[in-house]
Inverse folding.
């Protein structure tokens, strides 16, 4: 019997061929389905690892599997492989929406040890010593910002984690670089047909980047930018192209955030390490792909 929030039989059949057969030392893993369900229980409830119910096995095993597969990129590869399988049958809708959301950081998320330089996923910000672990200080305390690109069905394609006080537009290029759905077989990764984003992404640089890649930009012009353009007259140039009808589809990224934040360990960040938090988002994204598009 499948418990609440656990992998269904159909989902298990899809990911079973993609899972590692042996651990790094050549020994067989403890039952994958049991352990992954344990990781999902913790992700869904936000409870401490030590409170993992006995039916999922030792909590140390679940935590070690989650941490090891984060370190070797297994969670990210699983998500990419499922995305590639859907793209191979034409299921992915390549009108992509980009946006960000804030997650409050629990007090246990602060205080990670500093070991080596920050990675690209932990974008540095001069706001404070916690920035290397994607924690930014604001009036409400420590926060983390989750930048997301999703397809036209509201399923996540790319995830980037930064401190909560990082400007959305400065991370746009990183999000687009992360958006790489590999084809099954030969061929370059797919590119979006159009990118929908709100006024926070309205800049000449972003529109030029999309134009060079042959991607339609569906981004409304900010009021101050419009006023400045009109003030300059002919020197201000023409207004940027904007498809109002296509922009109506932007709500799918908000709905995707709502689905992701049903996992309490994503709505509130408990992980000390930014890479672990991002791995949890990737796992939650994988579950959304296995469940199917927004209905």
């Amino acid at each position: 019997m499948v418990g609440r929030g656990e992998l269904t039989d159909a989902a298990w059949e899809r990911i079973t061929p993609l899972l590692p057969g042996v651990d790094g030392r050549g020994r067989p893993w403890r039952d994958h389905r049991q352990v992954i369900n344990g990781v999902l229980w913790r992700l869904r409830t936000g409870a401490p690892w030590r409170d993992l119910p006995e039916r999922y096995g030792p909590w140390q095993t679940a935590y070690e599997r989650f941490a090891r597969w984060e370190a070797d990129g297994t969670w990210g590869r699983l998500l990419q492989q499922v995305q590639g399988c859907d793209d191979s049958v034409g299921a992915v809708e390549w009108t992509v929406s980009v946006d960000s959301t804030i997650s409050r950081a629990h007090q246990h998320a602060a205080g990670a040890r500093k070991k080596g330089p920050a990675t690209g996923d932990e974008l540095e910000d001069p706001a404070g010593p916690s920035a290397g672990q994607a924690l930014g200080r604001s009036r409400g305390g420590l926060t983390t910002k989750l930048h997301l690109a999703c397809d036209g069905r509201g399923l996540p394609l790319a995830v980037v984690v930064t401190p909560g006080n990082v400007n959305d537009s400065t991370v746009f290029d990183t999000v687009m670089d992360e958006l790489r759905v590999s084809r099954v077989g030969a061929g370059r990764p797919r590119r979006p047909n159009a990118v929908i984003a709100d006024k926070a992404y309205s800049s000449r640089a972003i529109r030029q980047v999309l134009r060079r890649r042959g991607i339609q930009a569906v981004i409304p012009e900010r009021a101050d930018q419009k006023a400045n353009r009109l003030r300059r007259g002919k020197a201000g140039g023409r207004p940027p192209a904007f498809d109002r009808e296509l922009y109506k589809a932007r709500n799918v990224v908000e709905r995707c955030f709502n689905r992701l934040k049903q996992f309490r360990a994503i709505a509130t960040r408990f992980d000390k390490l930014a890479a672990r938090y991002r791995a949890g988002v990737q796992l939650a994204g994988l579950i959304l792909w296995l469940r199917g598009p927004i209905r």
Observations:
- The beta strands are 95-105, 136-138, 141-150, 156-163, 194-196, 216-218, 268-269.
- The mean pLDDT is 88.
- The first helix runs from residue 9 to 15.
- Residues 160 and 175 are 6 Å apart (CA to CA).
